[in-house]
Amino acid sequence: MRFPVLTVGVTTVTAATNLVQLTVPGVLERFERTPAGLHGEWWRTVTSLFVQDSGIAGTVSNLLFLVLIGTVAEQVVSRPRWLLHYFGVGLASEFVGYLWQPVGGGNSIAVCGLTGVAALALWQRDSRLPAWAAGATVLWCGALFASLWWPLLVVGVVAVAIVQGRPWAVRPAGAAVALTGVFLSALTNIHGGALLIGILLALLTTRPARR
User: 58 lies in a domain?
Assistant: First the structure.
């Protein structure tokens, strides 16, 4: 497994920004996504990927899954493609957010962009995937459901216990990402749009997987 250079770098920068946000009043309000991002304050579309609107628990969760999903993605795609999925899908999803959730911030939608990479690699049974990739991906889907109602995280934990270490569950784990994207999109949740954009980009840019 190659060292996840981009994952570590982006996590470090995001965590440093989050620390500033937690210690300096007004940072979130200045840099989160709001309708003003479409009316002159253009930087909000970018900076909202680095601040968090879900408190300490949400911040820790987003950073943890950036490490997990980012590491998975960095094993199966080139680093330029990693950046495209993280920042490209993240920025595209901000515009979904302007429609569905016009106020907010967080790197979770960018993590969803990388989840599209993981989903396709799982479906293709890519040999470069870490052994824990299916479990981490399914747990992330559970965390996204938990953002709607926190007890749903239990569903994710149970699903991880079922899929982890079982070869037959690799493809279903990839399919779970697509189903999560469709379900959340039906609820006009920004993460659903981000997952589907991530999957679409992976389909358009993928190469045959190593088996």
Answer: yes
